[in-house]
Specification:
The chain is α/β, with parallel strands linked by helices. The protein is 38% helix and 16% strand. It contains 15 helices and 15 strands. It has an eight-stranded parallel β-sheet with strand order 10-9-8-7-6-5-12-11. Strands 2-1-3-4 form a four-stranded parallel β-sheet. Strands 13-14-15 form a three-stranded antiparallel β-sheet, sandwiched between helices. The two termini are 40 Å apart.
Length: 461
């Protein structure tokens, strides 16, 4: 079998770093390598159409690796040079991972059901209720839970349930009133939250599965009594020992889940996690991951969540991601680390840096007036031909730039630099990766970068 020969393509500024990286990789992975340095400073500015006109490759190349941010149709380049072409990573510092990827993992499966509660459902107009329910389902909810009003019976519960069922949605009813529950179940609700000694006498007539809870969270004897009652009457049920907020018995309530699983090893369990996500002053993502991890290990196969308070407004989506991560970790006996970074929101999974020497080398190699921005180790670097300013204060950097009276510092460039310097400052503040003209990474909340105005940065011929 012939030895693979990979041809790398880059711009002038990345040449030195790429040659060092490729030399190490070629020895480690065992392939022949060559490099084309095209007549452009920043590789990310090239397009496939432009590269197809400029690129020439040596004999024996088996595939060509373009920069990951090179836009356009790869087939244009492939037709021009006659060998397979692919995009590498967006940053050359990620090349080691690109060539050393782990085997494909069985990731994405889950076995925990998400019930998404719509709070105060009786107070919401039907069209808005349907819109909320469909949005929750799109985020990953398996069942839409209608939260009823403890103070007043809901005369329109049957209409709401039927409307949701007509949209193909599964429905649960969150009420303790037997008549309200009966109307909902007759209309198609499949699960009742919740049942204890106060309302269980009617449970056999509803024809639905119920969630059994203790009369008082700390008294499992009442739960045992209700479970016995339901079992004797053949009522399908799952158990919720009730999770309590921090400061009000949180640790003890986790202990109850352990105890209930010990007592009822084959029972279906549910955990209402909103008592933690909604009632704790912290972003909900990590809390959801931890709770879904507890559920996965204990065999709790359903969770009830809500997303009312602003810091928990995306809990359903977080639970959907978290249940997949937890399932992978438990079933594969693997740490839930470097598996799926969508739930790493505030900081980035890792930071790639050039270092001072390489940044100085980059600055000295710039021959055009376009501005480059780098941010690492607490410092912002602003570069152009004959220009290298650095510091931690973006306002000071801009004042120093203005003092030099560069010819190209018009309103459009000033706005552009302000936008990029703000992103760079945010990245340094939160220890995030900054890359010019690319969106900051916010896990699954990341929004694509807003395109710059056409013609703002011209590609050299």
């Amino acid at each position: 079998m012939n030895r693979e020969h990979i041809h790398f393509v880059t711009g002038r500024l990345a040449e030195h770093a790429l040659r060092r990286q490729v030399a190490e990789l070629a020895a480690q992975v065992d392939f022949d390598a060559s490099i084309s340095v095209l007549s452009i400073s920043v590789a990310a500015l090239m397009t496939t159409q432009w590269a197809a006109r400029k690129l020439q490759i040596p004999p024996g190349v088996t595939r060509v690796l373009l920069p990951g941010l090179c836009g356009g149709d790869l087939s244009v380049v492939q037709q021009a040079i006659g060998v397979p072409v692919e995009r590498g990573p967006s940053d050359l510092r990620e090349l080691p991972e690109y060539f050393g990827q782990a085997p494909t993992r069985d990731y994405g499966a889950y076995d925990i059901e998400i019930l998404a509660e719509i709070n105060h459902a009786p107070r919401i107009k039907l069209d808005e209720l349907l819109a909320q329910a469909e949005a929750l389902a799109a985020d990953g909810a398996d069942v839409i839970d209608l939260g009823c009003d403890p103070a007043h019976a809901w005369s329109g519960v049957a209409e709401a349930v039927r409307a949701l069922r007509d949209r193909g949605l599964r429905v649960s009813i969150d009420s303790m009133r037997p008549a309200e529950i009966a109307a909902a179940c007759a209309a198609g609700a499949e699960l009742v939250l919740s049942v204890n000694q106060t309302n269980r006498d009617a449970a056999a007539d509803w024809g639905a599965e119920v969630v059994a809870i203790p009369d008082h969270p700390h008294d499992l004897r009442t739960l045992d009594d209700t479970l016995t009652w339901l079992a004797r009457r053949g009522v399908r049920h799952r158990i919720d020992p009730v999770l309590e907020p921090i400061g009000f018995g949180f640790a003890a309530s986790l202990g109850r889940y352990l105890e209930v699983r010990h007592r009822y090893p084959e029972a279906e369990l549910m955990m209402g996690i909103g008592n933690l996500t909604e009632l704790t002053d912290c972003d909900s993502a990590a809390v959801n991951v931890l709770l879904l991890g507890v559920c996965q290990e204990l065999g709790v196969r359903s969770v009830l969540t809500t997303q009312v308070i602003n810091w928990a407004r995306s809990s359903v989506r977080e639970c959907d991601l978290a249940r997949r991560l937890a399932h992978y970790s438990v079933t594969q006996r693997a740490l839930p680390k470097h598996v799926a970074p969508e739930l790493v929101l505030l900081r980035d999974p890792k930071l790639l840096t050039y270092g001072e020497d390489e940044l100085r080398r980059i600055a000295s190699g710039i021959k055009d007036p376009n501005y480059r921005v780098f941010a690492e180790e607490g410092v912002i670097h602003l570069m152009a031909a004959g220009l290298h300013l650095w510091g931690s204060n973006p306002f000071d950097l801009f004042r120093r730039l203005q003092a030099l009276e560069p010819a190209n510092l018009d309103a459009a460039h000033a706005f552009y630099l302000g936008y990029e310097l703000a992103k760079a400052t945010t990245a340094l503040t939160l220890d995030k990766q900054y890359q010019q003209d690319q969106a900051l990474r916010w896990g699954y909340l990341t929004r694509p970068e807003i395109p710059h105005a056409p013609g703002h940065r011209q590609l050299p011929e």
